[in-house]
Amino acid sequence: MTNYSSVSSVAEEPLASSAKPACPAKKPAEVTIIGAGIVGLANAIALQQSGFSVRIIDKQGVAAGASFGNAGHFATEQVFPLADPAMLPKLPGMLLDPLGPFRIQPRYFLKALPWFMRFLVNMLPARRAHNSMAIKALNQKSIDAWQQLVSDCDCQDLLILAGSLLVFERTPLSEIERVYKSYRDAGVSVELLSGDKVRALEPDLSPEITHGLWFTDVGHTPDPAELCQRLARQFEKLGGEFIIGEVTQLAAGGECDHQDEKGVSVSVAGGATYQSDKLLLSAGAWSKPLARQLGFKVPLETERGYHLMMPQLSRLQRPVASFERKFIITPMKRGTCLAGTVEFGGLKAPLVEARADCLLPHAKALLPNVLNGAVVSQGERWMGFRPSLPDSLPVLGASPKSDKIFFAFGHQHLGLTWAAFSAALVAQTIKGEKPQLDMSPYRIERF
């Protein structure tokens, strides 16, 4: 892609012999971002708007990872950490079901065990309350930040604010009311609907649905990959530089005494090295080994998320999640996206087709008229890697070891949701300003 720069010339009067020569204009500080997913792209644009010169390095390119095929849901209603003690009695059954919503591949169990021990600790009431408050703090301004970002990038058509639904088929009303109250008490804008009112909003939904929760202040994108591409175009328009290459080595120098000294070097496979004043690590699920090179041992694990994109178009106006079936349907430009399930198996294990295929029977139950007669072979199977930390919070902000190193990774299921607002916070931090949010819950040294 092309870098753009502007050069201006100004006619000047001849300098008197006693006048000092003019100092050269100070160049914009350079930032290298590792990672071209939605989080890295949002950070790149925020930094460009803050006056930095920005380079992105990614081993595959724009939206090549989890940003390509996620559920497209700006899920600001999700205010509760994943470490929920209510899941403990259900855990053995879920782990034994190879097609259940939550699974650990047997060969990966011992490797994932340390992460799960930390996950269990975060179920303690005080930890859970702290983490929930930190999640809500990011959620509260995320939609506003996205509205500004899509306006800046001229892609308002890729942010649809029609809310989302959580539907119930077999759950007793007393339990539905408890779930409703938990969201309402957490400050989430939500309405409890009867089955008929749910179908008034979404006529294609099954008559078996008895109730629904309508989260009125959330949204979705009809094409997560295109959203990334449009942000990438804006990044290019603002003079950004893309490098395709796998990062092999990171090194941060000492304080710079002169303007032309560089504080950080990034080496990629093949031998090329890129230098810049500052570095932002935003490599998603691949951030853990790179953070280790910078002196941090981060308990990052990979949640392997699946989708099955069916070509059939529904009349859905918003995402629909199922309380009992633990999956989500999102209407998209290319069809109907079925997403969900969590699998722990690392970065190297291949896609398990059955994990994607099992979503179709659930979708047929909720959309019987739309998907009647649909078969798995019509769909597109996909698997992406969610970067998750045991407290359900991302790593954001500055390194305590270097004023040249910054972080924005570990956004778990809310990478799309938090990308724009967390980017604004990180840009403020890199610029040396006080962020509009207390960053201490997200600091890397919390582990």
UniProtKB/TrEMBL annotation:
UniProt entry tagged with the keyword Oxidoreductase: yes
Keywords assigned by UniProt, alphabetized: Oxidoreductase
A Pfam family this chain is assigned to: DAO
Gene3D superfamilies: D-Amino Acid Oxidase, subunit A, domain 2, FAD/NAD(P)-binding domain
Residue span(s) of domain FAD dependent oxidoreductase: 31-428
InterPro entries reported for this sequence: FAD-dep_OxRdtase, FAD/NAD-bd_sf
Designated name of the protein: FAD-binding oxidoreductase
Biological source species: Shewanella marisflavi
